[in-house]
Specification:
Helix content: 25-40%
Distance between the termini: 23 Å
Radius of gyration: 16 Å
Number of strands: 7
Mean pLDDT: 89
Length: 193
C-alpha cells in the first residue's frame, strides 16, 4: 500500500493531568507498545510527514529524536490552551489529537484536514459530543489564545466559538473513545485485542 502522507504536521497532546486515571495515562502499556503515547505515535507516523508529541516534560523512551518533543513551558498549569499556544508558535497549521483517543481512523483525519483551509479550527463531532481536541488548528488563533491566557480562560470551547470554525460530523462514536479512567482503559484494551 502506497501512503501519501499529509503535508501538515500532527501533534499528539500528552501533557494532561490524568486525574481520573490516577496515573499518567500516556505511559500506560497499550497493544504491543510500551505506552499509549508510543502506540499513537507509531500508528500515525506513516500518515504524516512530521509528527510530534506535546508534553510537560520528556517522559518518553520511545522518542529517540528529541526534536519531535514539544515541551509546554508552563509546568504548573495543566491546560490544552497553553499547549496550543506553544504548538502554534511553531506551526502555521497543525493536526491535533489527544494521546487518549487511539481509535480515530485515518479516513476521519483526512476528512478533517481536507476541508480545513478556510477555517481557523476544524474539529470533529459525534451525536454525543464535540471533540474539541481532534482537528486542525491554524496559527490565526495566536492572538486570541494570548488574550485568553491573560484573562485566565482555559476552555477550548471558548476558543472555538470565538473564531472561524467548522465542525465535521461523524457517526462512529466508538472511534472517539476517550481513555480517561480504568474502566475505559480496560474497554480500549479489549477493543485493541
Amino acid at each position: 500500500m502506497n501512503i501519501n502522507p499529509f503535508e501538515i504536521p500532527c501533534v499528539i497532546l500528552s501533557g494532561g493531568k490524568s486525574s481520573r486515571m490516577g496515573e499518567d495515562k500516556s505511559l500506560l502499556p497499550f497493544s504491543s507498545s510500551s505506552s499509549l503515547a508510543e502506540y499513537q505515535y507509531k500508528r500515525l507516523k506513516p500518515y504524516f510527514k512530521d509528527i510530534y508529541v506535546s508534553s510537560k516534560y520528556d517522559k518518553f523512551d520511545f522518542l529517540e529524536d528529541k526534536s519531535k518533543l514539544i515541551l509546554d513551558k508552563n509546568q504548573d498549569i495543566y491546560s490544552p490552551i497553553l499547549a496550543l499556544q506553544t504548538i502554534l508558535k511553531k506551526f502555521n497549521k497543525v493536526f491535533i489529537i489527544t494521546v487518549d483517543t487511539p481509535f480515530v481512523k485515518i479516513e476521519t483525519i483526512e476528512k478533517l484536514i481536507n476541508p480545513s483551509n478556510n477555517f481557523d479550527i476544524t474539529i470533529a463531532q459525534t451525536s454525543q459530543r464535540t471533540h474539541n481536541l481532534c482537528g486542525v488548528f491554524s496559527n490565526n488563533l495566536n492572538e486570541t489564545i494570548e488574550k485568553m491566557i491573560k484573562n485566565d480562560i482555559h476552555k477550548i470551547n471558548y476558543l472555538v466559538k470565538n473564531l472561524k470554525y467548522q465542525i465535521i460530523n461523524f457517526d462512529d462514536e466508538d472511534e472517539f473513545l476517550n481513555i480517561n479512567d480504568k474502566k475505559e482503559y480496560e474497554k480500549a484494551l479489549n477493543i485493541i485485542k
